[in-house]
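pasting input
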Amino acid sequence: MDKLLDLWFASGIYNVSGGQVVMIAVGLMLLYLAIRKNFEPLLLVPIGFGGILANIPEAGLAFSAVENAVHFASPELLLSFASVLGISGIDPHDILQAYHTANASTHAAATLLANDNNFNNGMLYNFYSVAIASGAAPLIIFMGVGAMTDFGPLLANPKTLFLGAAAQFGIFATVLGAVGLTSLGIMDFSIQDAAAIGIIGGADGPTAIYVASLLSPQLLGAIAVAAYSYMALVPLIQPPIMRALTTEAERKIKMVQLRHISKLEKILFPLLLLILVAMLLPDAAPLLGMFCFGNLMRECGVVDRLSDTSQNALINIVTIFLGLSVGSKLSADKFLDMQTLGILVLGIIAFGIGTAMGILMAKLMNKLAGGNSINPLIGSAGVSAVPMAARVSNKLGLEANSQNFLLMHAMGPNVAGVIGSAVAAGVMIKFVG
Amino acid sequence: MDNLLSEGLTLMVFGMGFVFMFLTLLVVVTTCMSKLVVKYGPAPQLKAAPSRAAVPVAAQVNSDELVAVITAAVHKYRS
């Protein structure tokens, strides 16, 4: 009978908390959206599954050795943790609080104490430390994105870089929104949190994760989920804004054929961009450096094997671990609070403002040039989300005029948006990091 | 609280300003690079593309002319 009771006390049903049930439901919902509705399945499947794994009661997959040890520890062990961390009480909550704020050497001492008592890091915690805390996974993905990007349309019409710049206004407007909510006492975000939330408006998953991991790791789960969900929702969010801000005649504007771009220009562009970053904004160097490296591998034509690996095999492998690691941040105690709701609302506002500013910038450029050389629909592609946003521009263009193919023209602002949000990320890291 | 708000405003002004400055510079540098490459760089592909495109057009014109000539010849022969 005792054995039966032991089994019962160790079971998931006995230990599960309400928050964990809710989070497992959230994980299942993400899986449903990914599998049934095809919302960014490559990311939401690993994130959703990771979220479920992270919330399995008693398994502690998403927790560090110390967190697991404190959860299971006897009072004697708690006492030794308290003495290592230099606090008097043995309340597990206080101990974890002290652990999270401790400096690196105390941190290591506590971890070693946990290891001595046969407690280890959970699997997802290890994935998180290797993939995200180190900054590696988002940067490797950025390299792959660079290797997939064709700068041809951008080089043929460099002015479209302005559209990519204008769309970044969504990022900074949202930062202001987040600190505004804090000033009004509705939410409680620090300036770092606000910056990390704003970058959702860049509509660029790896950039958002990279910035969040540096500026406010505790919000990473919510920020990543918001960023990827909204990227999947681009075909729903953008068209109403685009229709509202353009007239029928503007949507019908045909753009001139893009000129041919020589191979030499395509090779020189990533190098120029790299030099510009190195000279002006070294804080964006990790992101844009990897991006330029990937693009150079693609365009130089002598390392096709490396380029192929970074845009296929490597990016897939890293995506799996990145997704699971993001999922590990969906544990109930960190995800279920008002801040997550605030992040979701602010994220979609960031997206909307970015889209609107891209379109308005295109109209402004038409006014200044005194002609109708730019179809304002391509402005909305300035919020990265490659290539989804460009496809949306193309679709709306075809609706207005069935002979109007905007896809290649929209790819210009689209990749400009990637550069723009990486620059904005660098500025954020520089100013508030 | 006001401090936080002014920090946010500063971030917005500086951030947006910097993004625009950076991308404007990129536009200038890229345009210069493209001009230099078009002027001094090797451009075999540039010439190859139009000539390839020109071939079918020329062929079409030729065949039109040919048809006209043959028709005229036939007419003349029959009359």
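fyi Residues 2-41+54-78 of chain B form one domain.
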